[in-house]
Automatic annotation (TrEMBL):
Family: Belongs to the GST superfamily. Tau family.
Protein's name according to its UniProt entry: glutathione transferase
Source organism per UniProt: Rhamnella rubrinervis
GO annotation terms (biological process): glutathione metabolic process; toxin catabolic process
A GO CC term assigned to this protein in UniProt: cytoplasm
Boundaries of every GST N-terminal domain copy: 4-83
GO MF, one example: glutathione transferase activity
Enzyme Commission code: 2.5.1.18
PANTHER family linked to this entry: GLUTATHIONE S-TRANSFERASE U17 (PTHR11260:SF615), GLUTATHIONE S-TRANSFERASE, GST, SUPERFAMILY, GST DOMAIN CONTAINING (PTHR11260)
Keywords, alphabetical: Detoxification, Transferase
Domain GST C-terminal: 89-216
Length: 231
């Protein structure tokens, strides 16, 4: 099947879309990026993902694949000529999948708690909770990387892509709320890792400019607060 038959439905600023784009770039897959509108979802999106009705959706030929973690694994399985994304050893693959699920289950909700926090005490508690998650991830990095630059070793892999896709919004929140999440004192390896990850060619081609993400985040977060004012 020709690579020209690959389409990605997404929104440019979504970390879940960004991780899919990084995986496609890493495998050197030619694809068409179709920007969707979550306020007025396209017919193609509703047809391709009738269950969740959300992005990303990878369309390979006429077959839609939904949910970003599943899409990244699918990309790794289909385009075998490029560098491997998931580890080769079954235990390492299971470990990577565990931490990927942990990130989506714990990290993403923790950032939303920061968004909803009212007052200095609540904000500090929310930030501390998020930092605790990063400390756990720091330990996971040490075990998975085995002293190498990335979770995947010498090259970026599954966990690098999954966590790295959140970095734009992580840094945006640090700026908007005047907080520090990735801290040299608590997560020195992740601080170093983040700089290397963002310099990778596959990431540069998928990650929007930080200033653009931060300004977009300001608008979205302000809109959310206006729609859900404190009681």
């Amino acid at each position: 099947m020709a690579e020209s038959e690959v389409k990605l439905l997404g929104v440019w600023a979504s970390p879940f879309v960004i991780r899919t784009r990084i995986a496609l770039n890493l495998k050197n897959v030619n694809y068409a990026f179709l920007q969707d509108n979550m306020a007025a979802k396209s017919e193609l999106l509703l047809k391709s993902n009738p269950v969740y009705k959300k992005v990303p959706v990878l369309i390979h030929g006429d077959k839609p694949i939904c949910e970003s973690l599943i899409i990244v694994q699918y990309i790794d399985d289909i385009w075998t000529s490029g560098p491997s994304i998931l580890p080769s050893h079954p235990y390492d693959r299971a470990t990577a999948r565990f931490w990927a699920a942990f990130l989506d289950d714990k990290w993403y909700p923790a950032t939303r708690v920061i968004d909803d926090a009212e007052g200095e005490e609540a904000k500090k508690a929310a930030v501390d909770q998020a930092v605790e998650i990063l400390v756990l991830l720091e330990e996971a990095f040490k075990k998975c990387s085995r002293g190498k630059p990335f979770f995947g070793g010498d090259q970026i892999g599954y966990l690098d892509i999954v966590f790295g896709s959140f970095l734009g919004w992580l840094r945006a929140r640090e700026t908007i709320y005047d907080i520090k999440l990735l801290r040299q004192a608590k997560t020195p390896d992740l601080v170093k890792w983040a700089e290397k990850f963002l310099q990778h060619p596959a990431v540069i081609g998928a990650m929007p400019e930080q200033e653009k993400v931060t300004e977009f985040a300001r608008v979205i977060l302000a809109r959310m607060k206006a729609a859900n004012p404190p009681k």
